[in-house]
Backbone:
């Protein structure tokens, strides 16, 4: 039997491979390599030189026990501890066998059967341990493989995380940049909107200018002439006083009083027109004040008409008001509401003028009387302002868009497309009211403003 | 001669009555008033056989003074009534159109009644 030598050869070889001593434990690699050579040499000597067999066996036992001691005590050999437990019973039985043989050969001979049986059990133990160890090693290797895969996945997810974080940071920066650009664009748009609203105001003011001139000339005519005639009357009155004609003096005094009232009335009329013009061009204070809506309608109807007449001498239309005096003064922003009424009236005159031109161009003479009517009344606790015309009407396809900014059916340069859009905002957002439209093509249009009845 | 004053301003009647009170009292001038072109045409239907001088505003709702002038001069040819135009817009276009339609004179507001009085007297003589 050369069990000890074979065990040593296998053990040295196993330890070198298993512990990867060449790379991981170089200080032990040489020891195990020389150990391997010594074990081979001992086996050769044991086989070749029979007298030295007992000595060789004891040398082998010593080396094995030294190895067992090393493997059980050194930390770096922890992974291979299980092989020691597998070999240990066989080694102990083998040593005991040799010790007994050396001390008491008779005892050894009588117990040899037990030794051999125990040795077989130790071999079974060794094989079982090796199988279990192998399985554990495989399971461990699989676990290590899984752990490595998990580590790989973790690293991949970490790198993906870093990549995503970088992308998120990049996108966030891009979004922030876009946000800043949008905010800047919004500011620019607001500034442009302000400019456009101002342009719209000035454009409508421009249209009014001629009307204003006409409307001021008329009261001025009365103020001048009633003043002149009054001074003549005063001279006449002095003459009549000297003559002692009391009845005539009283009659002239009555005329003078009448004239002074007319002068005041027409002076006030001119002042109101100038005030209205200034209000129209001025930015709204944003505060509501008691306003005579009827006067506003009357004033802007005349101004709009005469403004259009001044621009187009061929233009002529009938205009009338049906005003409900019971509406009293209504709390509105006068310049804003004036702008809405003026815009609706201008549109109405534009529509009747367009239809009048169509009527003239028609092959058969069509009797058409262009008419614009502005009316006010109280309806269900609200103030209703209607601007009606018998003009061209609004085509159905345009009807949905008329309150959209920049939508216009007028030729380029004749309309900003902001009038109705601004009017809608002023009525709905500015006054909590409604702006509705009823129209029939070639029959006419009615714009209806409903305002909350917040009477002053 | 009857003078027909056509103006949509209601106070024109009072003003004329006061400024021409002496002429009216003496019977030198007789005034009639219409507040629109349509009213003026109605007046003419009744009084066309009389000698009428028309003094018309241009800018009035409905029929304008220029339209009235055109129709008067077309409908009453023999002899056509004298028509004097008054307007708050003394611009060239109105003036030329009025002349083209046969206006006999053209005045701008505010009206100088001394001048108007002289012009009326000239036209009536």
Residues:
């Amino acid at each position: 039997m050369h069990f000890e030598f074979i065990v040593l050869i296998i053990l040295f070889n196993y330890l070198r491979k298993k512990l990867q001593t060449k790379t991981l434990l170089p200080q032990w690699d040489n020891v195990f390599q020389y150990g391997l050579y010594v074990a081979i040499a001992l086996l050769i000597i044991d086989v070749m030189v029979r007298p030295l067999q007992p000595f060789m066996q004891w040398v082998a036992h010593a080396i094995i026990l030294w190895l067992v001691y090393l493997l059980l005590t050194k930390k770096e050999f922890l992974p291979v501890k299980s092989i020691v437990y597998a070999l240990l019973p066989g080694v102990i039985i083998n040593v005991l066998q040799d010790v007994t043989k050396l001390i008491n050969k008779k005892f050894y001979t009588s117990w040899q059967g037990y030794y051999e049986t125990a040795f077989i059990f130790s071999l079974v133990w060794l094989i079982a341990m090796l199988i279990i160890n192998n399985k554990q090693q495989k399971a461990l290797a699989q676990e290590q493989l899984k752990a490595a895969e998990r580590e790989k996945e973790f690293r991949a997810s970490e790198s993906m995380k870093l990549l995503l974080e970088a992308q998120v940071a990049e996108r966030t920066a891009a979004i922030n940049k876009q946000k800043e650009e949008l905010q800047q664009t919004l500011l620019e748009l607001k500034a442009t909107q302000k400019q456009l609203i101002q342009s719209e105001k000035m454009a409508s003011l421009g249209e009014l200018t001629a009307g204003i001139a006409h409307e001021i000339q008329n009261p001025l005519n009365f103020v001048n002439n009633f003043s002149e005639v009054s001074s003549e009357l005063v001279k006449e009155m002095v003459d009549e006083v000297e003559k002692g004609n009391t009845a005539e003096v009283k009659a002239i005094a009555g005329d003078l009083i009448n004239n002074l009232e007319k002068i005041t009335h027409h002076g006030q009329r001119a002042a109101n027109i100038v005030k209205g013009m200034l209000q129209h061009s001025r930015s709204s204070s944003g505060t509501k004040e008691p306003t005579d809506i009827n006067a506003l309608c009357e004033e802007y109807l005349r101004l709009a008409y005469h403004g259009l007449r001044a621009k187009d001498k061929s233009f002529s239309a009938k205009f009338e008001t049906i005003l409900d005096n019971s509406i009293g003064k209504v709390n509105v922003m006068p310049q804003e509401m004036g702008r809405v009424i003026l815009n609706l009236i201008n549109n109405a005159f534009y529509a009747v003028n367009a239809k009048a031109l169509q009527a003239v161009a028609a092959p058969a003479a069509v009797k058409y009387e262009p008419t614009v009517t502005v009316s006010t009344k109280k309806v269900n606790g609200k103030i209703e302002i209607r601007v009606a015309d018998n003009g061209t009407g609004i085509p159905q396809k345009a009807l949905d868009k008329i309150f959209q900014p920049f939508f216009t059916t007028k030729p380029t340069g004749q309309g900003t497309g902001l009038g109705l859009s601004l009017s809608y905002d002023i009525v709905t957002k500015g006054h909590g009211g409604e702006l509705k439209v009823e129209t029939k093509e070639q029959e006419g249009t009615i714009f209806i403003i409903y305002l909350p009845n917040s009477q002053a | 001669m009857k003078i027909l004053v056509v103006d949509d301003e209601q106070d024109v009647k009072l003003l004329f009555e006061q400024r021409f009170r002496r002429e009216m009292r003496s019977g030198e001038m007789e005034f009639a008033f219409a507040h629109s072109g349509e009213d003026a045409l109605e007046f003419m239907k009744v009084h066309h056989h009389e000698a009428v001088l028309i003094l018309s505003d241009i800018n009035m709702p409905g029929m304008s003074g220029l339209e009235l002038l055109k129709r008067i001069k077309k409908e009453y040819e023999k002899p056509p009534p004298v028509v004097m135009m008054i307007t708050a817009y003394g611009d060239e276009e109105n003036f030329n159109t009025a002349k083209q339609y046969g206006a006999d004179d053209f005045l701008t507001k505010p009206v100088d009644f001394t001048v108007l009085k002289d012009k009326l007297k000239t036209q009536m003589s």
About this structure: Residues 20 and 45 of chain B are 26 Å apart (CA to CA).
